[in-house]
Design a protein that fits this description.
- 59% of the residues lie in helices and 0% in strands.
- By secondary structure, it is an all-alpha fold.
Length: 88
């Protein structure tokens, strides 16, 4: 793959929204029935659900006009698809 190509993951916005909802539900269950006061605190409660929610929010950002803070992306451990698939 040359430097000019890019990869994206495509799925309907409704699927990304459901992913975010499911992740928030999992975080809430893991935290005794309530969401943590700060979203970043969800990482310590259920990292997989937190990362899934952040992934969905990043995917939805162009539609919502609400970018996800880089510190949340870093905390979730998100990386570009091509970085993961084409590591040398």
């Amino acid at each position: 793959m040359d430097d000019e190509q890019h990869m994206v993951v495509m799925k309907p916005a409704s699927a990304w929204a459901q992913q975010a909802k499911d992740a928030l539900d999992a975080i809430e269950r893991a935290n005794g029935g309530q969401l943590p006061p700060r979203f970043a605190d969800a990482d310590k409660i259920d990292h997989a659900a937190f990362a899934s929610c952040v992934e969905a929010l990043v995917a939805l950002a162009p539609l919502t006009g609400r970018p996800v803070a880089q510190d949340l992306i870093d905390l979730a451990g998100l990386r570009p698809v091509d970085e993961i698939l084409f590591r040398e």
